[in-house]
Amino acid sequence: MRLTFLGTGTSCGVPQLRCDCPVCHSVDPCDSRLRCSAMLEADGRFLLIDCGPDFRQQMLRFHREGDLDALLITHHHYDHVGGTDDLRPYCKGKDAFPIYCQAEVADDLRRRMPYCFEADPYPGVPRLDLHTISPLRPFTAAGIEVLPLPVNHYKLDIVGFRFGSLAYITDAKTVPQITIDSLRGIDTLVINALRFEEHMSHMSLAESLEVIEAIGPRRAYLTHFSHGIGFQADLPPKLPDNVFPAHDGLTITIG
Fold it and tell me: Which of 49, 51, 98, 196 could bridge across to 70 with cysteines, CB 3.0–4.6 Å?
């Protein structure tokens, strides 16, 4: 398996609009972060994890000519679903493009994009096939086994995903014990770490490192950063030896 980080930024992205901080003016391309998303490749199939407003730009940068087989959605906030209409090119050759998400996310998409679900849709709109998933109930997407994991995003119950020896969690404020137990000793963990200071609905770096220590993966990659995380180049010395800051375009191989 290979995982490519299509975006590693929070809902505002980095640089953030109207911000004059040094990070938002950095010339290091690793400090420029599109909204959080990733792409899993396994046995020639491609699963997209979240489809935010930067989706088109991400595909042009990192997967311009490639196909996508399905979309997995962690939750319905705009920075994770705002690019769903741009799935139109990936509907070609399919009866409809499969999307796997919790029931409330499916309901949100139907309200957000009603033109996709009409009995007689306008020609050219995305054809979307919504599959409802539930935490801790495994499912198969494009032949790839997936385990949804319960995660708490402040008052919102969302999901992360486990793919064999890889797990992907974003936007967590707390990670329930059942998810920690389900991931204990996993090979590779991807998890959010917004900034150094505490935040109401996202884990700080210190909180993320506590969860990583509880799970005990061989290695972990941090994502969903705001400009408050500082410069990418300054992060490695502040992290345990098996924890790494992700950046847009980074591809890692698992197993």
Answer: 98
Quote the CA–CA distance of 7 and 65 in Å, as a whole number.
18
pLDDT tens-digit readout, 6-50:
999 999 999 999 999 999 999 999 999 999 999 999 999 999 999
Report which of 243, 237, 238 is spatially closest to residue 217, judged by C-alpha positions: 243
Check the CA dihedral 111-36-198-157 and report its sign: positive
Strands 2-7 and 37-42: antiparallel
> Which SS3 state, helix, strand or coil, does residue 253 take?
strand
| pLDDT of 176 higher than 90 | yes
In the predicted structure, residue 255 carries a pLDDT above the cut 90 = no
Give the residue numbers spanning the domain of 203.
2-246
**Domain count within the chain:** 1
Confidence (pTM): 0.98
pLDDT at res. 177: 98
Dihedral sign for Cα 112, 193, 191, 26, please.
Answer: positive
Residue 34 belongs to a domain with what CATH number? 3.60.15.10
CA atoms of 7 and 58, how far apart (whole Å): 7
Helices marked H in the chain: 55-62, 78-81, 103-112, 177-183, 205-215
